[in-house]
Amino acid sequence: MSAKSYKFWFVVGSQELYGPEVLETVAARSAEMAAELSRVLPYPLEYKVTAKSNRQITEIVKEANYDDSCAGIITWCHTFSPSKMWINGLANLQKPYCHLATQYNLEIPNDEIDMDFMNLNQAAHGDREHGFIAARLRMPRKVVAGYWKDEKVHRRLADWMKAAVGAAVSKEMKVMRFGDNMREVAVTEGDKVETQIKLGWQVNTWAVGDLVKEMNAVTDAEIDALMAEYTASYDIATENIDAIKYQAREEIAIKKMMDREGCMAFSNTFQDLYGMEQLPGLASQHLMAKGYGYGGEGDWKVAALTAIMKAMGEKGNGASAFMEDYTYHLVQGSEYSLGAHMLEVCPSLAATKPRIETHHLGIGMNEKDPARLVFEGKEGDAIVASLIDMGGRMRLIVQDIVCVKPIMTMPNLPVARVMWRAMPDLTTGVECWITAGGAHHTVLSYDVSAEQMRDWAKMMDIEFVHITKDTTPEKLEEELFLKDLAWKLK
Ligand code: MN
Questions:
Q1: 297: CA distance to ligand 1 center in Å?
Q2: Is the pLDDT at 364 greater than 90, yes or no?
Q3: Is the sign of the CA dihedral 47, 138, 306, 64 positive or negative?
Q4: For residue 242, which of 37, 91, 116, 288 sits 20 to 30 Å off, Cα-Cα?
Q5: Is 41 helix (H, G, I), strand (E, B) or coil?
Q6: Which residues pair with 155 in a beta bridge?
Q7: What is the DSSP letter of 182?
Q8: Measured in angstroms, how far is the CA atom of residue 475 from the centroid of ligand 1?
Q9: For position 2, what pLDDT does the model report?
């Protein structure tokens, strides 16, 4: 998949009052800061303008809104910038917005400081005026304060940029559905019109028969090329090469259909495999490794969220994957969740080289044993995220988790598996998750943080619930009650 080359714009506030000399210094320093920050941030930061009038600010916002490569704006006030100048522009801003409250100099220079210095370096003053107007306009935004050369500031700006890229990807998201949602399941359902209004997702359906037709047109040469890729990436641990080739045929056909339509995610269901011999296992897993999102049992919400969180991760395709809560280990002192899926876990989670295996799959209409990747998940801090439809609004629930090396080998389990401890502890964490209405399907991510998901939810204007090491069921219940009231009024 070709990741778009996104950029961010640096818009610096000032006013004419200062005279040309000060304004030239502000412009030169702002350009220098943008260039230096571009070297350490994951996306370029382009210095655009030292804005000195209502007209200039309105113009730059219009430009940002209509430039597809602009994923967001970062503002800062080197000097004072009267914020009524910003109202007309900011009221029309359609891009993610971050206010960097910083200053050019690190220190107050004891000998040098005089009133000229104070007038030039008054971000402490200007950034407060700037913050007021965004608060007054009730604008969703991120405020990052600190010295612009500080590593922590870089990390927070980088995280925000990735969340903003997630917002840009969301607005262009197209999901290909093969088959409907699994019969009778509630949590995988959702209002596709409301979702498109809020999140931009275009969720539409294609016939399984069309996919089968596409599969039949795949050539042996195409299959051989993909088999070479499988062999290079994975250990072949089955003699059933035909099953692997069949998965390659499925993968090529699904990819062709998605690319033709510009889709970045897909869903299917084991209840509708008419004309297919195997549920796509390895096929779906390898597509996820390439950055496509996937959701099982028709879960288009988790499919799109997987693609977005992958795009928000390292190098635009991070370690994020469709996941499902399966079973618990409830022994006191070593309480864990075991996550997996019937086949489709993304190898970006793998601790070691995945093996391709074939096993019988009882569920669904599999005529043949599907090939799938089997592996253990990595250790480390992670999150699970679930997007649910509350009726009238979407709620994003994120829980902090710690993944561990699975404490048993489970030699008869024929699927990839991840073991983790939810925060604040397994049973309290489960109580909180269930109270909030979190699904059994999630996106598990090692490299997208809860703070990034909160920023993303803010950009998309949806409800956000975070279950942390400090969450208690009592506090959470109260939070959900108050948020429910607030979102009904909004
Ligand atoms: Mn499932």
A1: 6
A2: no
A3: negative
A4: 288
A5: coil
A6: none
A7: P
A8: 30
A9: 44
Domains of the chain in sequence order: 7-171 (3.40.50.10940), 174-489 (no CATH)
The answer to whether residues 441 and 384 touch, using CB atoms and an 8 Å cutoff, is: no
What is the Cα–Cα distance from 57 to 389, expressed in whole angstroms?
37
* Dihedral class, residue 12 (left if φ above 0, else alpha if ψ from -120 to 50, else beta): beta
Place of tokens 């994923």: 71
Distance 302 CA to ligand 1 centre (A): 10
401 alpha carbon – ligand 1 mean position (Å): 20
pLDDT in tens, 242-266: 999 999 999 999 999 999 999 999 9
* For ion ligand 1, residues whose CB falls within 5 Å: 296-297, 324
Separation of 393 CA from ligand 1 center, angstroms? 23
Contacts with 269 (C-beta within 8 Å, 6 or more apart), sequence order: 178, 179, 180, 181, 182, 296, 297, 298
Distance 324 CA to ligand 1 centre (A): 6
Structure tokens at 218: 């795949």
State in Å: Cα 441 to ligand 1 middle: 6
Nearest-angstrom CA–CA distance, 269 and 295: 9
Distance 304 CA to ligand 1 centre (A): 15
What DSSP assignment string belongs to 354-417? -EEEE----SS--SSPPEEEE-BBPPEEEEEEEEEE-SSSEEEEEEEEEEE--SS--TT--S-B
CA atoms within 13 A on the CB side of 297: 19
